[in-house]
Amino acid sequence: SGSGLERPQLVTYVQQALSYTLFDCKWLPRSARLLCLGSSARGTGLLQLYELQGGRLALLREIEKAKPIKCGTFGATSLQQRYLATGDFGGNLNIWNLEAPEIPVYSVKGHKEIINSIDGVGGLGIGEGAPEIVTGSRDGTVKVWDPRQKDTPVANMEPVQGENKRDCWTVAFGNAYNQDERVVCAGYDNGDIKLFDLKNMSLRWETNIKNGVCSVEFDRKDVYMNKLVATSLEGKFHVFNMRTQHPTKGFASVSEKVQKSTIWQVRHLPQNRDIFMTSGGAGSLHLWKYEYPAQRLKKDSEEAEMGLVGSVSLLQNVTLSTQPISSLDWSPDKKGLCVCGAFDQTVRVLIVTKLNKV
Amino acid sequence: MGDDSVPLFLDQGTTKRYKILIDHLDYKFIEKCTDVKHLEKILRVLRSGEEGYYPELTLFCEKRVEHLDLRSRALRKDKPLATASDFTAEEWKTINDELMSWVTEMNEDYKKSQFLRTDTVHERQDNLPPIRCSSSCLPANQNKILQNNQRNKKNVPRDYSEWDKFDVEKECSKIDEGCEENNSKARFLSRPSQPVIKKKIDTTGMTKKEKIFIATHEKEKGNEAFAIGDYVEAVTYYTRSISVIPTAAAYNNKAQAEIKLQDWDSALQDCEKVLDMEPGNVKALIRRATVHGQLQNYQAAIEDLNKVLCIEPENAIAKKNLLQTEMKMKGLKPVSETQGKGKRILIRDIEDSEVDEERWENTEGCERSGGDKSYVRAGHFLCSWKCFRRQINLCNMRMPQGCGPLFVHPSFTRTIVSSDDASSNSLLNFLVEAGVPVRGEAAAEEEAMGNAQKKFHSKGGGGKGEDRDAQKQRESTECGLKKGTSEKKTQKRLSDHEGEVNGYLHSDRKTESPEAEKICRSQGAGSQPVAGGSSTSLPPIAAKLKSEGNELFKSGQFGEAVLKYSEAIEYVIGLGEQSPDDLSILYSNRAACYLKEGNCSDCVQDCNRALELQPFSLKPLLRRAMANESMERYRQAYIDYKTVLQIDSSIQAANDSANRITKTLIDQDGPSWREKLPPIPVVPVAAQLHRWDGGNEENKPRSTTDTNREEQLQMNSEEKFKTLKNEGNDFVRKGKYEEAVNKYSECMKLNTKECAIYTNRALCYLKLNKYEEAKQDCDHVLQIEDSNIKAFYRRALAYKGLQNYQASVDDFNKVLLIDPNVLEAKKELKEVTQLLNRDSSAGASGPQKQRKKITIQEVTEPDEQEGRHFATSEDVVTDHATSKEADQEDVPLKTSEKLCISEPSNAYDFGQIINAVNINKDKAACADLLTITDPKKLPMLLGNKLEGEIFSIFIQSLEYYVVGKDPGLVYQHLFYLSKAERFKVVLAFLSKSEKEQVFKRDLQLIRSMQIRLCFTSKMPILFFGHGGKAVVDFNVLIVEVVGNARPLVKPTH
């Protein structure tokens, strides 16, 4: 196993059992603190702030709210404010000042049903342009919010009336490399992936990956759109080369079958966009590396550019739990540090070693 | 173990899952099975335990799958999370400590930041971009507001189809007409190839930590972009990172990206920024060296690489680059200042020549007359090897501008030899040609400037120091000559000749070094009152500026040097003091910069000013002449050269240029060209220097050759010696070593002190497997010259032949001691050391080993394609060793192959690959490269970098690897190769030796390649020679693809 140790290893640094159902966990940027969001046994929302202290997690604060909290993001806040935006079971988007969490600094009943997914951009020095939050809900809509505009979204994407509403499971920002460009990618329960161009207010691309889309993420939000990973219910994930869109064929992709169970999450390493981790329904984590093809595009017979896609290689895989790992977050400040929350009501802080050697 | 045999007894047919034959669950089957899919199924069955539990068989099957497909999914197993116990205590401590310190730091920061968090937050808010479609938009977005309001009124969200129907063009035209087109197209495709990204990040209100975070983030983005070759993007992100916090790392990476983009100037600047911050930054030094190399500032490149090697003596990249740079430099630089250096260059060439026989004979046998136009004058060949090397070096300078780095191609030497009246002119023509704004002289000039710089610091004594130096040099070279000559006459002749060379060099110094200029004057008649004393009159500030200017000039930053000189000039003028001397030098130096930049008119202006202040100073005159010549003002240039020659007739560059211009003027103006010349100013006696033999040579540039001719008459014995030696060399060339030995032996009767004869004869003996004799010759040489590297090298080979491996190793070590860069010696040393280590009884006999060396070169070339059918029965014996050798060579080869995998995107990449290929002589890699390279791009990719060696390796790899697969591609490559910038020059320098012989031998090969070559009535034009020689001649190249004749290059004469 000498060579085995040369590969990145996943090590549990700390783990903490919780008394409630954990839906999401997030590092507080520029700190060694993390947040756990979930639902208490009584059906209320819980928000816990932990700090890494030595070899343990110290609970600094616990805040209880009316509705279970499904998801959260710091993506649209400044590095100084570090306000947390959350989506809850009641379809509310709230922004919290964690120093004064009693009243949200922003609150809107954005959706009729649960907000499944949330993402932010334009904050934390990541992404040019206005700070914006996108929410995706079971009510079938995807809405973009600017914390400076009360009550109404700045963009709204929903199906035609009368058409079947699909449950939106995941949303992500991307392409925010300058003040004008920005896209939102949304994944739905029927396997639809839609790419909305916020600059042109258009549906730029859509595809279907046959199985429900559990998680989508761009490798980076703030670069000229490069790659997108979408994970699915049936244990597969797809990597799309987002650099080149063919007029008819769209974006080239490669898929990888991981296991039989759902891949709940995909998260790219903030310090290296070509490494990402997927978390699986069977309590497993897979660390991947994307390898670029020698050429990233070619011209088809009609001289239209079409993208070419590389391959993914598995760097490491581990099984931590028998329950699904529903949330995953890399520390933006410490390379290789990550937190994951599983339905076994445990939050784990992991270290991934040797990422520099990959 | 008992479990494992169970399947053999169970004969139930197939497994439940996948229906695999039970028999397949067996070691023997698994071992032989190569079907990964099938094995994966077997593995799954085994793992399921459905057919029983066989842990060892399962493991065996896993191993087998792993062996066949490392990435097989079946190999993925659920693994538990690693824990601290999976690491060694030390590893875990490192991991833990690192994290702990991070945690502590973060927690402290967090607390601090709580105090700091105040009103800065609000400031940041003001900088935010407007809300999308919101009423707070700026007036420019009014339409958008409208649209938004409408939407708000309706308050009905838009559905997907609506999204799709959304008339972008219309909307956009409302919003911003300028963006219209872009937007509409961007909707579907063809986004801008280079996204518009802000180069600066607004950091208002950010704390230091935040800035660090952002800067790091942007740098990481840059690294990622760099990693996949998006260099422009990478540069942008590095720039953004730098805009937040300028870090050495970001500058360094940016420089690397700029190197990839061939943006040398920016790369240079960035490297310098890094080195300002971290003077010992190895990467930056290496990068700067690369840039310097690309900008032809080889001296600066070498300095940087040496700095690297001071810091990291084992830095392989630096070593390699240094070697390359020196080789390139050798192609440009005249005699190095120190003897040591000169020797090193010399040695390397010999060793190069050892690489293959033909080349050897070209360098060594260069003295022989080249056949038609180039013949050697009596006495010339007698100059010592060093002297000869000088000529080569001088000749190398002839590379006309744009030639870029040029390895000394052996055949080059042929041209050099032609130092008779006519061709010495041509030789010197080249010198001056090279002196025109570009290349060639650059290195020399830098060198000289470097000198000047050094001297400058030592002020007053400087003049004498210089003089001493020069004298020392002359002494030492003469010393070298004495060894090679027997007769006084000869010696005189030689020193004359040497004087020529030296003269050039000296004049070069005089020409180029500001300080030396004064020395010249003081040297002159000794009667000049101005002399060195005046040099001190420069005020310190101006002196500093000047020295800075010199430094900049030295490092090739001519533009910046101009600024420094200009400042100095302004300062001196501002002082109002009359110091015409200094001012003149400043002007003259600035003129040199202009000349380098190709700014000829400013150069002329500055020279004029300098000459107004100091009439008849050499350097401004020479520079003006060069500038005028580049501007094709031949008459003015002629006048200046003539004036220079009046002052110092020893300046060969001037002499030669004058002759060349004479020809041009005759062509242009006819026989009465002189009448159209403006009057040549008469130089006052006081300004004249170095008057040769008191004669009035000024107006007779060939007078030196007249005197030479007289001496020539008195050199019969030398001539005979020369003839014999030439004949000997000829025989070597033809492979008639016996005859060559005879000739050389006769030579020795005439002159026992000429080491070259002994080393040549030693080589013949080596070829004849007469190792004892070879050894004796080498011994003899080493008695005369105890550090003759060639002799050591050949004696080492002789010892090897004599199976005296220990002595052989010793000698190879001596070779490497003298010059650690002799690759051949390294290779041989490795081989002999192996032989030594193996038991001596296993050693093959001498002849085989000798042969082995050759087989390595030839057998490895054809590789898979041709197989080894060349190998004779004798070779078989050594094959083992050969292949082993090849295996060991594998590593460097592989790296170069790796390089070749991707198609080179630009000339720089291509050049890098080619260099790697060239160093390893890796023809397979070269063939790969050529296969993936679009022939059409070849001239572009080659730029001005085509040179003999590269040409040769191209031809070889095309011959061995490509032609069999795709003759059409070979044709295409040859065709476009002929379009490359330096193709004709390279042709002219390639050896045409042995053409008949090689031609006969290769005709068959050529036929088999389906490429027939057309010949002019006289000579074969191009054919694929054997053993790695492309023989090309006569500036004419015609290749005919069978049945479809298409001339490559039309005959030019």
UniProtKB/TrEMBL annotation, chain A:
This is Dynein axonemal assembly factor 10. Key assembly factor specifically required for the stability of axonemal dynein heavy chains in cytoplasm. GO terms for biological process: apoptotic process. It is found in: Dynein axonemal particle. InterPro entries: WD40/YVTN_repeat-like_dom_sf (IPR015943), WD40_repeat_dom_sf (IPR036322), WD40_rpt (IPR001680). WD repeats lie at residues 133-146. SUPFAM superfamilies: WD40 repeat-like. It comes from Mesitornis unicolor (brown roatelo). One of its GO terms (cellular component) is dynein axonemal particle. It comes from the Eukaryota. Pfam families: WD40. The keyword Cytoplasm applies. Its main location: other. Keywords: Apoptosis, Cytoplasm, Repeat, WD repeat.
